[in-house]
Amino acid sequence: MDAQELKQYLADAPPSVVRLEIEKHFEALSEKQKRYAHFISRASFYGSRIVARQISPESEPIFDFILALHKSSGGDWKALQAKAGISDEELGYFLQYAAQFLGNNGNYKSFGDAKFIPRGPESAFSALAATSPEAQKFYDATSGAIFSTDKPSLLHLGYPEQGHMTTYYPGSPDITKVEIDAVSAWMEKKGLLPENTRLVQKKDGSFEIWIASAITTIPVEGGDVGKETVFKIEDGILAGKTITLVYGDHSKELAGATASIKKAVENSDNENQRNMHSAYAKSFEKGSLLAFKASQRFWIRDIGPMVECNVGFIETYRDPAGIRAEWEGFAAVVNLERTRAFGALVEAAPTLIPHLPWEKDFEKDKFLSPDFTSLEVLTFAGSGIPVGINIPNYDDIRQTEGFKNVSLGNVMSAKAPDEKIPFIAEKDLEVYKRYRDGAFEVQVGLHELTGHGCGKLLQETSEGKFNFDKENPPISPLTGKPITTWYKPGQTWGSVFGSWAGSYEECRAELVAMYLSCEFPVLKIFGFGDGSIDIDGEAGDVLYASYLSMARAGLTSLEMWDPKSKKWGQAHSQARFSILKCFLEAGDDFCKLDYKGDDLADLKISLDRSKILTAGRKAVGDYLQKLHIFKSTADVETGTKFYADMTNVDPEYWGKKVRDEVLRNKQPRKVFVQANTYLDEATGKVTLKHYDATPEGMIQSWAERDV
């Protein structure tokens, strides 16, 4: 790989290290609530090694290497530098890499799925390793993978048969997508949920499904599919093969998580919390995803808690097949003032959803009003921290029982010093800077609540039973004819749309947010305007900032597209790029890219504010309607082809010219230094410790976390 190609994979210098501020909100909790938050935090962080293990084989030893150096030096990096005989610059590059690594819980970016490598020389890392036998042991265990770039395909996460990196299929370099899909279909038919599993192909062609659990043998009472663990496949491409269920993946970490979660039970505020954490404990201890689904049912019933949480194998973005989930856990404190605005949005949702561009046949019979809270994050253990969450991800629960939305306020508001804002024209900078946070809060609220919360999946719920009138099927607004496709018994949105599902759904939710943000009463809920249409007033400023932000996000998303593999590395980025294309194709000069010369120098977004409610909203509505109807009717063939076209990157213009300019203006993505909590066993009191927003502070926070 030449130097120019390598440049995009270098660790950020410097990384954008920011601190998650939580002290004011945490101190307002009762002592019991502080203990509750502490034990959830501990359970969440116990999964950090699981996350590293799910990213790459070298991530866990890199994690241990960094912490071993901190331990051997007592955090005195200058003394360690002198002992290693390396320069200030070389130490700086190590610390920058370590901060980015710990911020992503691995050596692949959580937002982009691309590997990052140190800027300093390999010799400096070797010299640091030589200062401590323990550090040397872990450094040797990385097998040179920290700096390795000799196989470009391994610089991105993806399917093994395409040469990409994945550890969801460990020790299975020859496993094919067809085989993965066939095992997935068998699991679906068997009723074995995939989120907490990894799949291994043995040398004899048989398969093992590794189930994450603290126990290392099948539960005495049996697992989610009974007491059988070995299955002989009799038909299909797997005919003659065996599938064996193996318990105990990540057993040590899940034993720790289980113990902490059981302590959370003792400090719960109500019966729903106690039941939720008891179900978590069963899931982590015995590998039961049916127990995890039970935890999510109790979670959505726990309305308005002061400490909010969710822990487990949740999001499936990083599995190339889109069904196995990464460990994630958070504990957060409710911001009561901001939650009031989200509560008003929930109340307004039933009147907003009918504005969306489809008939009631394609919408839930009744909007299940969720709990929607604004949270200040105490702990978020995973590969990255989002700004908003809408879960659970199980369609059968979401469709009939409900869901929850959370907005993560201190993540959203965290700013790095001297943050640059490329691609926004000078004339728009003042409005953009003043209203981008407000616009983003509105967007996140609409995205999570009405975006992920709206829509009906037309299903044959069981043999011969349908959740729509089968004899008089709904008329598709796209064809003017009755629908001909729907979900069959046992099928889910994820199982039908597979690896497309994550990005497709994020795009649909983003479009709902863009469409409904044009409703000025929504802007009033968040304190902007009086609810009347005023494109030139403050509410119009917020709407303009929202559309500018989306266009800019679509542009900068090209960083996440790899021109060699022609692969998107991030679901949200793929979605936002397609929305920018939607803006540009809206016509009437609504949106265009301005630049000087063929090299696209001084590239800026030009968006006509006066046409947001006309050409802009119509283009968004047309795009949204297609995505929604294809999803609602399980029309995977038409839907995925359409979405593939919308997210296609023309290699010459977008993939070369525009992307080069995006990379020239690339800004470091924020990594967050999180506080730790400490319990005094004698008094039962919990104290909070913050750390400096520096690479050294990031490393110290992890060293003192002791996971």
Give a description of the structure.
With 707 residues, the protein is an alpha+beta fold. The strands form seven sheets. Strands 6-7-8-10-9 form a five-stranded mixed beta sheet. Helix 17 packs across helix 21 (538-556). It is globular, with a radius of gyration of 25 Å. The protein starts with a helix and ends with a helix.
Summarize the structure.
Among the domains are: 162-251, 2-Layer Sandwich (Alpha-Beta Plaits), CATH 3.30.70; 420-664, no CATH class. The chain is of the alpha+beta class.
Number of strands: 19
Low-pLDDT runs of 5+ residues are none
Q: State the share of residues found in helices, binned by percent.
A: 40-55%
Structural class determined from secondary elements: alpha+beta
Rg, Cα atoms, Å? 25 Å
Mean pLDDT: 95
Biggest sheet, strands in spatial order?
Answer: 6-7-8-10-9
How does the overall form come out from the CA principal axes?
Answer: globular
Please give a handful of descriptors for the protein shown.
five-stranded mixed β-sheet, 707 residues, four-stranded mixed β-sheet, Alpha-Beta Plaits, 19 strands
Reconstruct the topology from this structure.
Blueprint: H1 3-7, E1 16-19, H2 23-27, H3 31-46, H4 48-55, H5 59-73, H6 77-84, H7 88-104, H8 122-129, H9 133-141, H10 177-190, E2 197-201, E3 207-212, E4 230-232, E5 242-249, H11 251-266, H12 271-286, H13 289-301, E6 307-315, E7 326-334, H14 336-352, E8 371-381, E9 388-391, H15 395-400, E10 404-408, H16 409-412, H17 426-451, E11 460-462, E12 465-466, H18 493-497, H19 501-516, H20 520-525, H21 538-556, E13 561-562, E14 567-568, H22 571-584, E15 591-596, E16 601-607, H23 612-632, H24 636-646, H25 653-664, E17 670-673, E18 676-679, E19 686-689, H26 695-703
Helix pairs in contact: 3-11, 5-9, 5-26, 6-8, 7-26, 8-9, 11-12, 12-13, 14-17, 17-19, 17-21, 19-22, 19-23, 21-22, 23-24
